Amino acid sequence: MRKYNLVGLTGQTGAGKGVVSSVFKEKGWAVIDADKLAREALAQNSPALYGLCAAFGNDIIKEDGSLDRPLLAKRAFSSRENTDTLNALTHPYILQLVLKNIEHLVSQGIKNILYDAPQLIESGSHLLCDHVITVLAKENIRLERIMKRDSLSRENALLRIKAQHEEAFYIENSDTVIENNGSQEDIKQTAFNLQNDLKKGE
User: Which of 31, 100, 180, 196 sits at 20 to 30 Å (Cα–Cα) from 107?
Assistant: First the structure.
């Protein structure tokens, strides 16, 4: 039995995954954020960035050499096929960074690690985890949250929602499912109880 506890956190866009992650962090869990690692993997002149250019066009790189994220998102989330292409090109690089982060944290004696990843299951990273949590919510609620959070039009918010899998996919690949259709206080309490149950003793 390994000395550390790796819990995976995923969910549909706009479901409230970030709230759950913040509660775990407040309660002493080390959090690995896949979105931050993706930015690192797609730094200027990185192999992953050039791979995306081949798939989505050279104009996704701005004149200063950085990634035009809104343009990439528009193209990558325009269809499930394009989203799958994005994931296939980036996941291997992100996984390398995840493993490095885990190794570093464990070397410091950290025992409880949360891996917060929108594409946790699609990348196969859920297989590394001792427990997988998914956060879900009704589509109309997620739509309003995404539009407000990311300042998106209804059309673009729907594109992001439709580019993801249905609820059944997440439920089938998860150990715990949180339905976040209520208040923030409700989900925070649920997250607090869950992290307490899953935490490995120091």
Answer: 196
Q: Check residue 67 and report its DSSP letter.
A: B
User: pLDDT per position in the chain (202 positions), as tens?
Assistant: 688 999 999 999 999 999 999 999 999 999 999 999 999 999 888 888 989 999 999 999 999 988 999 899 889 988 888 988 998 999 999 999 999 999 999 999 999 999 999 999 999 999 999 999 999 999 999 999 999 998 888 988 888 888 888 999 999 999 999 999 999 999 999 999 999 999 987 5
Bridge partners (DSSP) listed for residue 113: 6, 30
d(CA 9, CA 136): 11
CA distance 199 to 114: 10
The residue range of the domain holding 27 is 5-198
Residue type, position 195, single letter: Q
Predicted TM-score (pTM) above 0.85: yes
- In this structure, the number of other CB atoms found within 10 A of the CB of residue 180 comes to 25
Which candidate, 126, 123, 115, 135, places its Cα nearest to that of 176?
A: 135
Number of domains in the chain: 1
